[in-house]
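TICKET: design request
STATUS: open
ATTACHED STRUCTURE:
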């Protein structure tokens, strides 16, 4: 599954849930990181990975905002160049 599809699936999940633990977010971000490495989205994914180490809970709203931004950055690069 490409990064945008993974992000879309998690965004849909974030519409149904109230909050996420750091492990849930880390799993997604590590998968996405492999797809967006060396793209404009990489620093943002890394920033959020750092936050998952520092925090214990994330609201669904802030997760949606972060993933929407990462998705927009990931779309700047055609899928075949990832």
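STATUS: resolved
RESOLUTION: sequence designed for all positions
ATTACHED SEQUENCE:
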């Amino acid at each position: 599954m490409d990064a945008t599809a993974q992000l879309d699936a998690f965004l849909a999940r974030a519409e149904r849930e109230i909050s996420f633990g750091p492990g849930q977010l880390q799993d997604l971000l590590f998968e996405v990181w492999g797809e967006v490495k060396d793209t404009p989205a990489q620093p943002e994914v890394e920033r959020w990975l750092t936050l998952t180490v520092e925090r214990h809970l994330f609201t669904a709203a802030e997760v949606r905002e972060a993933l929407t931004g990462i998705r927009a950055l990931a779309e700047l690069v055609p899928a075949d160049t990832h």
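CLOSING REMARK: The mean pLDDT is 89. The helical segments are 3-16, 22-36, 42-54, 60-74.
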